[in-house]
Amino acid sequence: MPVEVRLPTVLRQHAGGQASVQANGGTVGEVLEDLVRQFPATRGQVITEDGTLHKFVNVYLNDDDVRYLDKLDTKVGDGSVVSILPAVAGGAG
Amino acid sequence: MLRLTRPVYERMVGHCLDGLPLEACGLLGGEPSTAKATLCYPTDNVAASARLYTVDPRQHLLADRDAEARGLEIIGVFHSHTHTEAFPSPTDVAQAPDPSWHYVVVSLRDLGPVTRSFLIVDGKVSEEPVVVEDR
Whose CB among A13, A17, A23, A47 lies 3.0–4.6 Å from A34's, allowing a Cys bridge? Predict the structure, then answer.
């Protein structure tokens, strides 16, 4: 089923400038795979080559960070919104 | 040049002081084209460290939505350096998530807070002036 995927500024350039796109899938992982199918330049930006969530991004289902749900296996439903944001971190080191 | 309204500046520096002895962090919202921050979103540092920060991911999502609802965007991030100068560390540069953002460092090393802002594009750091405006 199609769900809304909200993109961070850095990924919008790979999706024709759109802030939000529709993608299909029953889980967050499937939705993100469909995103890459539609917009190949997003490959490697959200999911790593070994199929895990990239550590420099956070992915949310509605209000919740999917790392605290079932990660990429988190099920999506009607009206779900998947949001992608950069992980913001740093420090004096 | 990054412009901050005085309430944003005061809230940002206040949050950094409140966070001592740990690093504090937060997000700045505003109009990207004018580089003016009119919104300050203090966030939790989930790294809870004096040397590292990680913006609470859920608070980031809520800040992003709030800024968007106001017709604005997240235009940058601030964090404190508790015992080093206000200059991006290698960690800051390596993890800078967005080349369009303003990276503000508030150093609390000296008696008075020192606020500096940087652009980080492809690993290259350039400083920009910070101006605090009354409104």
Answer: A23
Rounded CA-CA distance A60/B43 in Å is 17
Classified by CATH at the fold level, domain A2-86 comes out as: Ubiquitin-like (UB roll) (3.10.20)
A70-86 confidence digits (pLDDT tens): 999 999 998 999 999 99
Report the percentage of chain B scoring pLDDT > 70. 100
Give me the residue from A10, A63, A89 closest to B55, CB to CB. A89
Residue B97: which pLDDT band, with cuts at 50, 70 and 90?
confident
Residues B20-67: tens digit of each pLDDT:
999 999 999 999 999 999 999 999 999 999 999 999 999 999 999 999
- Within chain A, strands assigned E span 2-6, 20-24, 57-61, 64-65, 81-86, 89-90
| Chain A closest-CA separation from residue B64 CA (Å) | 9
Q: Could A10 and B99 be called an inter-chain contact, meaning their C-beta atoms sit closer than 8 Å?
A: yes
- Our CA angle for B22, B27, B32, nearest 5°, is 150
Residue-range domain boundaries for chain A: 2-86
Which residue does chain B place closest to A85, by CA atoms?
B61
Q: Kindly determine whether residue B52 and residue A63, on different chains, have CB atoms separated by under 8 Å.
A: no
Report the distance separating Cα A9 and Cα A85, nearest Å: 9
Number of domains composing chain B: 1
| CB-closest option in B23, B96, B99 to A92 | B23
Residue with the two structure tokens 């420099």:
A56
A51 at interface of B, judged by CB pairs closer than 8 A: no
